[in-house]
C-alpha cells in the first residue's frame, strides 16, 4: 500500500488521480515564472544601466540616475503587460492556464 502507483495507476486512473493531474499545469507555472523573472531582472538591469549603483549591502542607490525608479518600474510593468497581452491575443485568456499539447518530433 506504500507504492504510489497503487493509488494512481497509469492505465486506468481513478477520478481523484485524474483531478490531481489537471491541477498541476506547467503552462500556467511557465507564464508565472516568466513574469516574475522578467520583472525582477529588468528592474535591476534598467536601474543599473541608468546610473543606479548597487551598494555592498545589496540596496540600490539611484541619486545619479537620469531616470527615476518609478519610470523604470512603469516601463517594466508595461513590457510585461505587453507580453501577457500577446499571449492572450494568441491563445485567449484560457490559453494562459491551459495545458499545452505535447511537442511533436
Shape: elongated
Helix/strand structural class:
mainly alpha
Q: What is the mean pLDDT?
A: 72
Q: What is the count of helical runs?
A: 4
User: Order of strands in the sheet with the most strands?
Assistant: 1-2
Element string (H = helix, E = strand): HHHEEH
Alpha-carbon distance between the termini? 38 Å
Please give the oligomerization state of what you see: single chain
- Give the DSSP E fraction (strand runs of 2 or more residues): under 5%
Specify Rg, calculated over alpha carbons: 21 Å
What does this structure look like?
This protein is mainly alpha-helical. The chain has a domain at 26-93. The protein is built from four helices and two strands, in the order H-H-H-E-E-H. It has helices at residues 4-7, 15-23, 26-49, 69-91; strands spanning 53-54, 60-61. It is elongated and about 50 Å long.
Describe, in short, the structure shown.
With about 100 residues, the chain is mainly alpha-helical. The protein is about 55% helix and about 5% strand.
